Automatic annotation (TrEMBL):
This is Bacteriophage lambda Replication protein O N-terminal domain-containing protein. It holds the Pfam family Phage_rep_O. Residues 48-137 form the Bacteriophage lambda Replication protein O N-terminal domain. Residues 1-45 are annotated as: Disordered.
């Protein structure tokens, strides 16, 4: 691949005309438009989900329990990792993936819902996604 340079002689990336993926935006998985979906990236042949800095900064001081963190990350992965869609939350599926008891998963789910860190969508009882409006989250008690 041929590198292109800006007017100061510094490398600015790959020339889109000579890039093998046609667009030159990055080498991640492609959606119908040929661009990488938000939150997805491919590196060394593996696709991974990015954890946005503002979300990390918001959850870090919250001192989640292990089950709460597992439920949060499961929902994050299933929504952001799959182009931001909401998911139907099934306690049994999450318990299987995280190796926690279903009762523990259900309690963690309810506490995240009560703290407004996750929210229900489309009027579905268990249709959930991450609440990106951090101002709506319950404040941290000190």
């Amino acid at each position: 691949m041929k590198k292109i340079e800006n007017y100061r002689g510094k490398c600015t990336g790959v020339n889109p005309q000579t890039a093998s993926n046609g667009g030159g935006d990055n080498n991640g998985p492609k959606n119908k438009k040929g661009t990488t979906p938000p939150g997805k990236k491919k590196q060394n042949g593996y696709t991974y989900t990015r954890l946005y800095n503002h979300i990390y900064d918001a959850i870090e001081p919250r001192k989640f329990s292990g089950a709460q963190y597992a439920v949060f990350m499961y929902i994050y992965r299933q929504t952001i990792g799959y182009q931001g869609r909401s998911i139907i939350f099934k306690t049994v599926d999450v318990a299987y993936k995280t190796k926690y008891e279903p009762r523990t998963i259900d309690m963690a789910y309810k506490s995240l819902l009560d703290d407004k860190i996750i929210k229900t969508v489309d009027g579905k009882k268990k249709g959930v996604q991450i609440n990106f409006m951090k101002s709506e989250w319950t404040p941290i008690e000190e």
